[in-house]
Amino acid sequence: MLGLTRKDFTLLLVVVALTLLAPIILNPFPVSSSLGQSFNAGYPALLQRFAIFGILVIGFNILFGLTGYLSFGHAAFLGVGSYAAVWMFKLLSYNIVPAILLSVIVAGLFSIVIGYVSLRRSGIYFSILTLAFAQMSYALAYSVLTPLTNGETGLQVYASDPQILAGAGAPSAPHFFGLPMASSTTLNMGGWAFTFEVGYYLCALMLIAAFYLSIRIFRSPFGMMLRAIKSNQTRMNYTGLNTKPYMLWAFIISGMYAGLAGGLLAAMDPLTGAERMYWTASGEIVVMAILGGVGTLIGPIVGSGVIKYLENIVSKINENVLHQWFGALPDPIENGLIWLVHPFVGEGWHLTLGLLFMVVVIFLPGGLVQGGQRLAALFNRKSGTVTAADRDAARQKSAE
Amino acid sequence: MSKSNFSRRGVLKTGAVTGAGLMLPTYLRAENHTGFTNAPTGDTVTFGFNVPQTGPYAEEGLDELRAQELAVEHLNGIGDGGMLNTFSQKNLDGTGILGKKVGFVTGDTQTKSDVARAAAQSMIQKDGCIMINGGSSSGVAVAVQGLCQDAGVIFMAGLTHSNDTTGKDRKANGFRHFFNAYMSAAALAPVLEKAYGTDRKAYHLTADYTWGWTQQESMAAATEAMGWETTQNVLTPVGAGDFSSYIAPVLNSGADILVLNHYGGDMVNSLTQAVQFGLKDKMVNGKQFEIIVPLYSELMAKGAGSNIEGVYGSMNWNWQLQDEGTKAFVKSFGEKYGFPPSNAAHTCYVQTLLYADAVARAGSFNPCAVVEALEDFEFDGMGNGQTLYRGSDHQCFKDVLVMEGVASTSGNANMVGYDTLKIVEETLRAQVEYAEDHPMFAGGALGDCNPGA
């Protein structure tokens, strides 16, 4: 189906089902329950981020997962895409179509320039070059190019902006030909409430399209070539094959994915700032990819989802919430439990993430996807089943 | 490897499913109209406290959070009531707001606009917050203020000092109690004139972003008006860490004043290095060389230690003030946490009470009613004397404190930053007022209040 093998098509269907039903799946608890207040993640703003960062890391994975080139400056493309989109809002209108198109194009052009220079080196030198470019972009956006980026305050749309295509009475928020991104409907069922938002569904469709394209790239001769570069670029060169164009294309595609993500971020929330390009943002992308599983299809979505969940949900569990949870217990036990749990939630979510990352890197080199496959193998009772990710990890080891 | 097997049936089917998926959200569009976003329905009303809990301003953010929790306690009738007893309005009696108990959720902004907006969105969409309070940087405050305007909730800004927050980027749903760069400069100028005379040459080191620029612009304008000369303004990258390469040229520039338009860790580093270079002991043009830090905070004073001795700066409020409101607040904060509140804590505490009072006076949580209640609202007893919330730009006007760094009076290491700043002068409100269309604040428009929904 759709040019995919049966297995890949099933995976695509799973992703489609998960993204379309996410507003329900991520709201497993009644709204007013204490569990719901702490763990429900099915509100539009976060759902959008799940989808957008999913797209971003899928794109990153095409570069890092297939070619093994670790770009440490991917956030630059995200930022450039966002700036392009917000400028479209400022100049044309709040319609998201030109904004998203331009953000992909600008990020693509930007990645040609950076890719052309950075790809002259490989390994750590490539990573440092991309990092340097990204930090340069950040510094430029933060202060030097302030007329273009509005510096620290961030670029946003003012009522005085031209918006030449916006007719009278046009929506004053991002919209898709009149359909506002923020319009939503809430389905109340008993204690549960599910919010379906137009913006999220746009992101979800983009995510599905991005995911489908990534499967096709993975399975194409082009993808095979990229894998060959990963396993031994020198040998490829000796056989008389010029690997540069393949690398550059992988880099550009990856940059355009990031541009799309940046455009979508701006379309959901029409403001952007330089910190979107900061090196920690680039690092976060790398962590997401590794956490989910580098070189796997679904890994990027899992990795970005886990980190966004920790960042937005676990970081909000403060001491008061803990007191609510354990309030029924006798005081010494309550305080003991809070003392035990508190460092890992609220502002301590970074610690939880760090521990999780260490566990994954040490015990599951194939990321959380490998963990899932191992679990599945456990339940399938087929002992000795070697998972795809295991194989990939083993191959990487022998290649080193 | 790739095989194309698009069948007409397959394409039609996929198209139909996609189309249906696209239509679904439109079809289901039926919002329940309550009049405004997150109208509280139960017996509680939820505030969102959005402060940096990690990152460079975490200590300030956590202090803000302490004050916000204290404010909620006082609103709910727990504790001694703090400033509710000294506030000129008596609509709040410790039974919550309009009979509803006050609850709150917290978020971590990490001092990043994106993260702050994500946290605010979660507060609005998930937790049903009716008001967002907090912020420890102008970029974040401006970003969250815009979000609240679009979503239809009230934003009570915390620590944000840039002119833009109530200037170029002012919004109808946003209010700022804290003072701004213009007020700092206007308050400092007379004191500087008295201390250092009118014939001085000032060298500016400025953090290279919006706040730094507005601070520098305000300081240059105010000091030039009294006869000083601005010899040079050098922009420094934010978070530079090492400022020695910027400070060395000051020595040979012929300037006899160094103005450090830095904040937070940058200010601690640049001031420390300037002192290490011996600037404070130098004589230039026959005058003692002096350093000025326009914006002070307890946290920065703590970080800079004894280097701040003899350095002038300004503050929105200080715990050493002797009015009734300050005493009541310092007492209840001190009893709960064991140390005095910072001026960041004070502004967030006051903002929370002011919002609650505005709701009580308006008789409604509707943002537009609250905006109306706060606009041109005159009050007293909150530590800053007689204060006005100006309706045309949603900026508070009140006395501004000029501070001087001194040696610790108590010698207690825990009090460094709290007792190493001395109040030199309470500059009166009239001195720091400006017209709403002042060039440094021009280019913005409040727009209409947005109740959302």
From TrEMBL, chain A:
Pfam entry (one): BPD_transp_2
GO molecular function: branched-chain amino acid transmembrane transporter activity
GO cellular component annotations of the record: plasma membrane
Topology of the protein relative to the lipid bilayer: Multi-pass membrane protein
Subcellular locations according to the entry: Cell membrane
Residues spanning the membrane: 9-26, 46-64, 71-89, 95-117, 124-145, 198-218, 246-265, 285-310, 348-369
Predominant place of localization: membrane
Keywords associated with the record: Cell membrane, Membrane, Transmembrane, Transmembrane helix
Record PANTHER family: ABC TRANSPORTER ATP-BINDING PROTEIN, HIGH-AFFINITY BRANCHED-CHAIN AMINO ACID TRANSPORT SYSTEM PERMEASE
Protein name per its UniProtKB record: Amino acid/amide ABC transporter membrane protein 2, HAAT family
TrEMBL record, chain B:
Span of domain Leucine-binding protein: 44-405
Annotated GO biological process: amino acid transport
Keyword annotations of the record: Amino-acid transport, Signal, Transport
Top-level taxon of origin: Bacteria
Record-linked CDD domains: PBP1_SBP-like
Pfam families in the cross-refs: Peripla_BP_6
Entry similarity comment: Belongs to the leucine-binding protein family.
Protein name according to UniProt: Amino acid/amide ABC transporter substrate-binding protein, HAAT family
Organism listed in the record: Loktanella salsilacus
